[in-house]
Each structure stands twice: as structure tokens, then as C-alpha cells.
Amino acid sequence: MTNENLSKPRNETFTWLQPGTWRKPCIVHVTMVANSRQALFGKLTHNGCEAVVEKTPLGWALINQQRRLLALCPEIKILADKVMPDHHHIVLQVQRTMQRSIKEVVRGYMQGCKEEARKQGFTENLYDAPPFYRVLTHRGQLHAMIEYVKANTERAWLRRQNPELFRMHRKTEVCGLLFTSMGNHFLLDWPDRQLVEISRSASEEQITKRQKEVMAAAHNGAVTYTAAISKGERKIARAVREYGFPLVVLLNDGFPAEGSPQERFYKPGGTYFEACSKGKLLLMEPDEITFSNPVIKTAVEETLRKKAEERHYVYTEIPPESQRYRFVALNEMGRMFVER
Predict the structure, then answer these.
(1) pLDDT band with cut points at 50, 70 and 90 for residue 9
(2) What is the rounded CA–CA span in Å between residue 161 and residue 300?
(3) DSSP state of 269
(4) How many angstroms separate the CA atoms of 297 and 332, rounded?
(5) Is the predicted pLDDT of residue 2 greater than 70, yes or no?
(6) Dihedral sign for Cα atoms in the order 300, 303, 306, 308
(7) DSSP H/E element including 297
(8) What residues are paired with 193 via a beta bridge?
(9) CB 304 within 8 Å of CB 318
(10) Judging by beta carbons within 10 Å of its beta carbon (0-12, 13-18, 19+), is residue 334 exposed, middle or buried?
(11) What values do phi and psi take at 90, rounded to 5?
(12) Contact 151/159 with Cβ under 8 angstroms?
């Protein structure tokens, strides 16, 4: 059975309902975090071949509670799980309609874990926040869920070995503009640079031709800058990343807000994580004040006016808060970086 088939339990149509009423077939990735992110469940080490978590007695208790969960809820199947030092993941599949919601089931599981902690002399609350749920909603997401959980230990080890590459920097200044950034900042100093900017109306032939040009330059040492907005830009950025060439990505909304609970533990997702760990990636999100910078605003207006004239439209100024303005602004910033 393939991973995609798992998302369609036999005899029932796949359905996910509003939070609190997940009783019908669904697949959910649940993340549970230890109190104050304490390393209660294990110790991260490397055995020479791979990163592993040496579980504490409490870490093993989490596994035992999973067995109890399956015994009490035969409607549920565990597709993936991972105990980390300060949190744990479970990907659950509800195979047929249950009497209880998945949230009630997870709450019962966590209560069992807390009881085990008390038996072992842990007097504090084991968790200081509710679990986080990611619900399967589209094709391909299940594979990503499972791979994320499986690779969690290795990702944590890579972060530990390269802490500076995963440190979020506020107020990074480039060309007099301010950004939030994460990754290899030495890429900004690389002398050979290229910008990938492709219209959303570009044909496959045009995209393929541009990709060949970009890959040739990257092979010869150029750092690629892109906002990765249009289909063509995303396709070329993916190729640059997959071949291990350095990449600078300009983001419209990529980092947690300053001072938010997510800020401390943020890390780039998916393949961006691997590229970041190897020093091949820099992510940059402009500050709000950067979008309204007079130089950027003038460049955006000139670009939008030119596009309007080409299509015989009357140019109308749009505010910096609009998505269209921001997408054009990101490309203008990328052009400034490449041409500086």
C-alpha cells in the first residue's frame, strides 16, 4: 500500500472536520512539547552513522502510552512517531468513525503520559501548552508529514552542529535596507550574482531556456537571488537547491513575528533546512519600513507603470501593503543586491 492510499480509509470517504469534532476518517500530525522545552524525554547523540535520541525512562513511557492508545482505540493507526529530547511527534490515522474526537483521544494519551511522569517523581506539569495539530488536507502532504517526523533527529543534530546558520538575525542591513535573515550571510559577499525573475505568463519553453542559463551560471560560481513567486521562479529555485548551488531567497512573509512564542524555535522547513545546514541558503524577509523605502517605492512604481503602458492601461498607484506591490518590491530588492 502506498502512502497516498493511506489517506483514504476503506469503506469511508476521507473527511476532516472542524477542530474538536474530528471523529470521521482523517490523518493528523500531532506535536507535543515538554514543559519549558526541558530535555525530559532523552538526549540527542550520534552513533557514528546517524543521529539518535537516547531515551530517558520518561521517554520510554511515551512509547508505552502509544501502545495503550492503540489498545483503547482500535480505530486509530500510528503512521509515524518520534520522541525528541524536548518534544514528541505522532502521525495518527483515524481509519473509521470513532465515538470520541481525535482531540479527546490525544488528550487522554497526554494524561496517561502525565500520570507516568508523576509515578517517576516528576512533580511539574509535563506539558505547558496544548498540542499542535496539522491536519492532512491535500495530496502529497502525507509523505511530507512522515518524512518530517523520520528526519527530525538528524535535523536537530545538524542544527546543533551549525548553530550560526540557524540563528535568526533581526535588522540585517544590505544596501541600506533592513531585513530579518537566517542562513549563510557570506553569500551576500559573493562577487558573482544573478537574479531569477520570471513573469507568471512565461511559457514552459521560456522557463526551460532561462533555467539552463541560470544553472550554467550557478555551476560557474554565481549565487542565485530570487523571490521564488511565479511558477518559473519556483521551478528554477528548486533546481538550484537540488543541485546544491547557493541560493538567496527573498521572502514576503517567512519568519515568526518578533517576540512571538514561535520565534525561538523557528527553523526553515523541508529541503530548505538541508540547504541551510550546508551553508547553501540565505533567507531574507524585508522589514515593513523597507517596503516603504523611497528608493524601493520609486523602483516599484517605475516597473508597474511600464507594465501598465505595455498593456495600454492607465497606471494607478497601489499601496505598499498590497501583495502585488510587495512581490514587485522583492524583485526590485533582488535587482539591487545583484547589481550593487
Answers:
(1) very low
(2) 40
(3) -
(4) 9
(5) no
(6) negative
(7) helix 294-310
(8) 223
(9) yes
(10) buried
(11) -145, 130
(12) no
Task: List b or e across 36-74, with b for residues whose CB sees 16 or more CB atoms inside 10 angstroms.
Answer: eeeebbbebeeeeeebebebbebbebbeebbeebeeebe
3-state SS of the chain: helix, strand, coil percent to 5?
40, 20, 35
DSSP letter assigned to residue 310: H
Of the candidates 94, 232, 89, 108, the residue with the CA atom closest to the CA atom of residue 155:
89
The H-or-E segment that residue 231 falls in is helix 231-242
Alpha-carbon distance of 334 to 225, in angstroms, equals 6
Q: Is 7 left (phi over 0), alpha (psi -120 to 50) or beta?
A: alpha
Structure pTM? 0.68
Contacts 24+ apart (CB under 8 A), 296-304: 296/177, 296/329, 296/332, 296/333, 299/329, 299/332, 299/335, 299/336, 300/325, 300/328, 300/329, 300/332, 303/328, 303/331, 303/332, 304/328
* SS3 category, 329: helix
Dist. CA 4–CA 20, nearest whole Å: 25
Task: Please say if the pLDDT value at position 129 is more than 60.
Answer: yes
Question: Which of 239, 232, 188 lies closest to 217 in space, CA to CA?
Answer: 239
Top-confidence residue, 159 or 66? 66
Q: Which cell is 227 given?
A: 523571490
Coil, strand, or helix at residue 32? strand
More confident residue, 330 or 151: 330
- Residue 283 near residue 249, CB atoms below 8 Å: yes
Lowest mean pLDDT among 88-97, 103-112, 159-168, 209-218: 159-168
Is-contact 309 200, C-beta < 8 A? Answer: no
- The three cell numbers locating residue 292: 516603504
Helices then strands, counting H and E runs in the chain, come out as 11, 12
pLDDT at 144 > cutoff 90: no
Q: Any residues with CB less than 8 A from the CB of 313 and at least 6 apart, and which?
A: none
